[in-house]
Amino acid sequence: xxxxTKTAAVVGLDGHVIEVEVDISPGPPAFNIVGxxxxxxxxxxERVRAAIRNSGGEFPMRRITVVTCPK
Length: 71
Fold this sequence. Notes:
- The chain is α+β, with helices and mostly antiparallel strands.
- The protein has one domain (3-70).
- The chain has 1 helix and 4 strands.
- It has one helix at residues 40-54; strands at 3-11, 14-25, 30-34, 63-70.
- The chain is globular.
- The two termini are 18 Å apart.
């Protein structure tokens, strides 16, 4: 595991604390987000890519897995 942090997610009108873990490993380039139940997964991928590009960073060309877990 590369990094772990806590954040919040809004479900309906309620806020929930969630834990996010990121792993970057060797292998063919891939970006997977696991744990979000709906179309938020696809939208999150694009938001993450855009945020990295717009902050001047370079998107790693390795296997990236992001796991979200309710706490």
